[in-house]
Specification:
Length: 459
């Protein structure tokens, strides 16, 4: 390879390296960019932001330590256009640079070993240029391959659970990758030095660093990965605790309402016992011609009897309470509430069914509150199908339903977020007790939640 050819190769190589790293960054961001709308446009924004970053850094001859800051600032500036929250963009960029620097240090050690394994010989310039071109190509391919694997591993771990990035979590997750980036910047400055016109390489002066530096780089990368895994484990634990607390609260509320229902039925029995006396009094007033007093007496009776109204009978006190409470609230909010629910008791715990109904109907009520009056509706059905019990709740909704990686709708509530969005998780957990499942569907302006339970005796 001639000197001119090497210069051309060097220019093409630089452009190819920039494109390679731009593609890897875009691929790393791809799973986290929402698919609604034209996702490819958002991906192109990430790609061209990196290209712009390379152009700015190369032309301005900026110090290497500022590269990460510039790219981070550019990606944060376009976070609105790629539809990602700024804390998450910041974190992804940190993980990208941590993986890139860590993989670079590991490949650099291998590159040094390969280069030194070939003894120096006096060769024609063409052979020297060709050898240099092959080595830098080998370095790029090795670095790109290792970086792709490391980014893919990080990506898979991050995608396992949606991350709620408050200030404390963001600081905690950023600590290890930032330390890895700083470590890499320091080592990069020490790898090659010129002193009194003499080239000094760190690995020549300290051969032990050939093993120490790659191990440290790998530890920084592994620390970033384990930090994500640990944070997600803690988030899962908090969600489980919140779900159990919410389920406990629901169970206590259902128990309290059952107690009220028991008192209600006791008062009904007392009223039946008192009806004989009321009928006797009515006969006496009729016989005496006291029609004005009779009318007043009947009005008072009607007023007292109206307190004992339990319109919907489902076949179980627990479900009676929940369904009738929903009916009363629906009337207050102008929601059309249609019920065809019959509790099928064999093989099912009334409290489990109650928790399912409570969560499904509560979610339906909250969704209907956002719908214009006149268009609000809830339809509840519960039927036996062979050895299965099918519960379905349909309701109107406004806006857009976004499903998360777990298949459940993503909550839009910002306040006290850990306590929200767990209703359907509780429903799914209750269904799994009976080897059942929860299915969610949207059809235009109708949201449908279907729960299929299997009879315990068949398990």
């Amino acid at each position: 390879m001639s000197e001119t050819g090497f210069c051309i190769f060097n220019s093409v190589f630089s452009a190819g390296a920039e494109l390679t790293y731009a593609v890897l960054l875009t691929a790393f961001f791809k799973p986290f960019i929402p698919s609604q709308g034209r996702k490819w446009r958002r991906l192109l924004i990430v790609f061209f932001v990196y290209i712009l970053f390379e152009i700015v850094c190369n032309r301005a001859a900026l110090p290497q330590g500022s590269f990460g800051l510039i790219l981070t600032a550019l990606l944060l500036a376009v976070s609105k256009w790629i539809d990602l929250e700024k804390p998450f963009v910041f974190l992804l960029t940190l993980f990208y640079f941590n993986a890139r620097i860590s993989s670079g240090l590991m490949v650099q050690s291998l590159y040094f070993i390969v280069e030194r394994s070939q003894p120096f010989q006096l060769e024609p310039p063409e052979a020297v240029f060709l050898r240099a071109a092959l080595l830098v190509m080998l370095f790029l391919l090795s670095h790109a391959s290792m970086l792709a694997v490391m980014l893919y591993t990080l990506q898979r771990q991050i995608r396992k659970r949606r991350m709620m990035l408050r200030r404390r979590e963001l600081c905690y997750l950023s600590l290890v990758p930032m330390a890895g980036i700083l470590f890499g910047q320091v080592i990069s400055r020490l790898l090659i030095e010129f002193k009194d016109g003499v080239l000094l390489q760190l690995y020549e002066r300290h051969p032990a660093f050939l093993a120490v530096i790659p191990v440290l780089a790998l530890l920084f990368y592994a620390g970033a990965y384990l930090t994500i895994a640990f944070q997600q484990g803690m988030a899962a634990l908090r969600e489980e605790q919140s779900a159990l607390y919410a389920e406990h609260q629901q169970t206590q509320a259902i128990r309290a309402r059952i107690h009220e229902a028991e008192q209600f039925y006791t008062r009904i029995r007392q009223l039946k016992h008192e009806m004989r006396g009321h009928m006797t009094n009515i006969k006496v007033l009729t016989g005496q011609g006291e029609y004005a007093s009779l009318e007043d007496y009947i009005a008072r009776m009607d007023e007292s009897i109206s307190d004992f109204e339990l319109t919907l009978q489902t076949g179980n006190p627990v479900t009676d309470v929940i369904v009738n409470d929903t009916r009363r609230r629906s009337l207050d909010l102008g929601i059309r509430f249609q019920v065809d629910f019959h509790y099928w008791s064999p093989g099912y715990d009334a409290f489990d069914v109650g928790i399912i109904l409570q969560n499904l109907l509560q979610n339906a009520m909250e969704a209907c509150e956002k719908v214009s009056e006149g268009e609000r509706f809830i339809v509840l059905t519960g039927k036996r199908k062979g050895r299965f019990f099918l519960i379905e709740v349909k309701n109107s909704f406004a806006g857009e339903v976004v499903f998360g990686q777990d298949g459940l709708p993503v909550t839009t509530k910002k306040e006290d977020a850990p306590m929200h969005g767990i209703g359907l998780s509780n429903v799914r957990r209750e269904a799994e007790k009976y080897m059942g499942e929860l299915e969610l569907r949207t059809d235009q302006r109708e949201f449908s939640a279907t729960v299929l339970l299997q009879e315990r005796s068949s398990l």
